[in-house]
Amino acid sequence: MSATRSGPCAPERILIMGAGAVGGYIGALLHQAGCAVTLADGWQAQVDAIGRHGLVLESPEGTSTFRPPAIPLSRLDRLAVRPDLILLCTKLYETSATLDALARAGLSGIPLVNLQNGLVDEAIAAAVGRDHVLGGIATGLNVAIIEPGRIRRDSASGLGEVFQIGELNGERSRRAHRIAELLAVVDHAVVVDDLLARRWRKLSLNCLSSGLCAISGLAVSALYRDPHARALLPRLGSEALSVGDGLGYASSMLLGVEAAVWHGAAVAEPGARERLHAAFDAQALAQRVDFRSGMLQDMLRGRPTEVEFFNGCIARRGPACGKRADTHAAVAERVRQVERGAMPMGAGNLADLACRLGGKA
User: Fold this and answer.
1) What DSSP designation does 20 have?
2) Is residue 276 a part of any domain in this protein?
3) Three-class secondary structure of residue 298 per DSSP
4) Helix 259-266 vs helix 270-286: angle between axes, to the nearest 10 degrees?
């Protein structure tokens, strides 16, 4: 089932946990479409900015101001009406605290759609009950917070399957279809029956650039052109594909390139490297020149990164299924070092890791 961008939605009562780039963008457009949306966030500056001036969205289609209500997490128990649906858009390291806040506010038992990027669906299901949890993947939004109360989207809408909604058991349920219809007012939405495999594919894609951008300070487009990054990227992709296969999340492609090519480039096969370099060129061209990965944005703001749920996750999962993920482990450790101030951010980190790991550009 596919749902394209549509008109006004029914007056659903939707609580969005996390008013950052993704949650704020979705919430603003759902509110405009007629849904009774409330944004909740622990970032007081964001809540205050939305309350004072509204939420400004910049996109290739133009700039508009929206006024969805926004509250701090401390006011969850004062909601005027019980929501029909919760969208979880917080940082991954905030998941447990967010679920606790919902429970304390008496908001348990409400259908919850996890729109985070990592593999935390099963942990959420264990905490709130599997019957209450659906998963959602947002791909191609390319949104970032410019300052409190201002979000920029770098990609045009309507260009592909942006939202992929699914039940954890793969069922194409009526509620999954209804949620896809709701999110279609934001951008193209589909219902899928292979959510967890798609989660791994998105995680693998994020893990190519997020950590490397965070330690180098490079924007995504510059990263894909950097020769030292090009020595590390094939290894990161090959390891992610191998670990995913070991976990049963088999994926034959990454960046539109077959797994066999990634594995060949990881051991410096010339033809394979050339194929990947062409894919890296295309990826660089597809990005706004100053677009920064979310992990780099967090690093520059002095916020914790999600590295333990990205490269750190692949590094931990690899040995558990008999696959090595040494490059992901090395990138995760370097992110930790830069994050705590033990090493400076800079492109030299890419050269150092490429040398240590024996990569060849």
Assistant:
1) S
2) yes
3) helix
4) 110
Q: Which two tokens stand for residue 27?
A: 């919430």
In the structure encoding, which two tokens stand for residue 43, read together? 């970032």
Q: Encode the chain (361 residues) as per-residue pLDDT tens digits.
A: 455 455 555 558 999 999 999 999 999 999 999 999 999 999 999 999 999 999 999 999 999 999 999 999 999 999 989 999 999 999 999 999 999 999 999 999 999 999 999 999 999 999 999 999 999 999 988 899 999 999 999 888 877 889 999 999 999 999 999 999 999 999 999 999 999 999 999 999 999 999 999 999 999 999 999 999 999 999 999 999 999 999 998 778 899 999 999 999 999 999 999 999 999 999 999 888 888 999 999 999 999 999 999 999 999 999 999 999 999 999 999 999 999 999 999 999 999 999 999 755 4
110 and 212 share one domain? no
Read off the tokens for 287.
């990005």
> Could you tell me the residue range of the domain that residue 63 belongs to?
2-193
User: Which is it for the CA torsion 190, 192, 195, 201, positive or negative?
Assistant: negative
d(CA 115, CA 83): 17
- Is residue 361, in this structure, part of any structural domain at all? no
Neighbours of 56 (CB within 10 A): 19
Tokens of 89: 């858009």
